[in-house]
Design a protein that fits this description.
Length: about 300
């Protein structure tokens, strides 16, 4: 980037009567085209978080927020400049996941000037231009965009190199407007760092060290299978069969009383899996989806390690 000069558009070329602005109008006037629409989506995300750029071609991530959050932007839309045949499938490619046995995705690092193993950004923003083919297309209408925000850990954890919109939604992505995008990115970035990177190794607690005051099930002291010391004679099998799994916004499943939640009683962004055997399924590497709580359908991809240790 040492030879980068940020142009204003007023600069003129040699030998021809044309400005850089003329070139931009020639190459990027049609904001419906896939390339231009992708650049626009990155620009919208950058503007939302206050990033000033410039855009770096082939870097491992698309936007670097002022606080250091790395953001990958993926784009899709209903309308195309070419005639579409068949149903619309909103799909996003270039994801970092790689299922076992398949080739691992590689990324170009502008910082090192070489290819590296797939870089996982802190946050992934899936941008959808919602104008359908039967309506006039206004590339300047920011209200025509929906944005879905997921953490890098969740995206990479799927093992997928591409993903359809319905999968993004099942993983907890919710359509938000541009004006709410900065707040959503910040929230997901904070959770991603806290849950996947910065948590200290959880202390291994014996069930005798757990106390009744951790119980959030409003059960009589000594009777909760999760929160009471040994819960009388409750067995591990009983615990696995009856435990409610609390799914965090970062898609980690916890048991009641987990120190990661602390004294915070706000579960407005959490889901609950109440079906018997859900905790055992999660411990065995299977995903589980919330069937209760504030966010029904929120998926847990992994079990909290400290909860595994004490269960």
């Amino acid at each position: 980037m040492t030879d980068f000069v940020r142009l204003t558009g007023n600069e003129t070329f040699t030998d021809i009567d044309a400005t850089v602005r003329d070139f931009w109008a020639y190459a990027l006037s049609n904001l419906k085209e896939n390339a231009a629409r992708g650049y626009l989506a990155e620009f919208l995300v950058a503007k939302a978080v206050g990033a000033t750029g410039p855009r770096i071609e082939w870097d491992a991530y698309d936007v670097l927020a002022p606080d250091g959050t790395t953001i990958e932007v993926k784009t899709s839309g209903h309308a195309q400049t070419w005639q579409r045949s068949g149903p619309v499938v909103l799909k996003f490619g270039g994801l970092p996941g790689s299922r076992e046995g398949s080739k691992v995705k590689r990324s170009w690092s502008a910082a090192t000037g070489e290819m590296i193993d797939a870089f996982v950004a802190d946050v992934y923003v899936f941008c959808v231009q919602t104008t359908t083919a039967d309506r006039p297309y206004d590339g300047l209408d920011i209200g025509a965009w929906d944005f879905y925000v997921l953490s890098g850990g969740v995206v990479a954890g799927t093992g997928q190199k591409s993903m359809v919109l319905s999968r993004v939604i099942r993983l907890g992505g919710e359509p938000i407007a541009w004006h709410d995008l900065a707040e959503a990115i910040q929230a997901v970035a904070n959770v991603n760092r806290k849950d996947l990177n910065d948590f200290p190794v959880a202390p291994v607690e014996t069930r005798d060290e757990m106390t009744e005051d951790l119980c959030i099930h409003e059960m009589a002291p000594g009777t909760c299978a999760l929160c009471s010391p040994r819960a009388g004679n409750a067995s591990a099998t009983t615990l696995a069969d009856t435990a409610v799994v609390y799914v965090s916004p970062s898609h980690v499943g916890h048991l009641a009383g987990c120190f990661h939640k602390g004294d915070d009683e706000d579960f407005c962004r959490w889901g609950e899996v109440t079906r018997p055997g859900a905790w055992q399924d999660l411990r065995n590497g299977r995903t589980v989806a919330a069937d209760s709580g504030a966010r029904v359908g929120l998926v847990a991809n992994e079990a909290c390690k400290s909860c595994v240790a004490r269960s």
